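Lab meeting, item 3. Inverse folding demo.
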């Protein structure tokens, strides 16, 4: 499954340039760009991601999986659906980028509450900022974050290290180095 996911990421989500021409969310420039929505919103991508992430959390006895909208949403949904099919249901949740100004003013949506144990997911990690925003929101709501699972670790800007300072159990399904290795094999 991982090999096929890697192929999908290379084919649909990855761009590379010898020059740093891709502007990233944090404002920096990079030679690598990942638009993982083209994989996380794809039916085959959701099947693969749902199974791989579920396998990464199935032994943790978690209540839910989720993260900061928009990157985490399709991942969390795929994992929750997979968990139901595998007879070990795990809820999904969404962390808003900012608190609602109406209704219940919830920052976190879904069937999660204080005391729950969760895994935070994200599509791409560079600095770890969006992932850590989700971790902070969970903790502020009294939710215990056991692990972080990301689709792609860009291996830039200390994202993995920044996250591991807060959540030591960190796993990336795919790394930039793995994508580049496959890229070099296919470009020749």
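The presenter then showed the designed sequence:
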């Amino acid at each position: 499954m991982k090999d096929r996911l890697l192929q999908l990421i290379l084919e649909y989500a990855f761009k590379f340039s010898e020059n740093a021409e891709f502007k990233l969310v944090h404002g920096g420039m990079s030679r690598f760009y990942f638009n993982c929505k083209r994989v996380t919103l794809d039916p085959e991508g959701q099947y693969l991601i749902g199974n791989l992430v579920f396998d990464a959390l199935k032994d943790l006895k978690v209540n839910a999986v989720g993260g900061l909208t928009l990157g985490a949403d399709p991942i969390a949904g795929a994992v929750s659906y997979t968990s139901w099919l595998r007879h070990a249901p795990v809820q999904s949740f969404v962390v808003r980028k900012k608190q609602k100004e109406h209704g219940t003013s919830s920052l976190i949506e879904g069937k999660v509450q204080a005391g729950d144990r969760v895994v935070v997911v994200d599509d791409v990690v560079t600095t770890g900022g969006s992932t850590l925003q989700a971790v902070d929101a969970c903790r502020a709501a009294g939710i215990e974050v056991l692990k972080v699972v990301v689709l792609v670790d860009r291996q830039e800007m200390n994202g993995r290290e920044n996250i591991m300072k807060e959540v030591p159990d960190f796993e990336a399904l795919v790394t930039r180095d793995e994508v580049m290795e496959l890229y070099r094999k296919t470009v020749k």
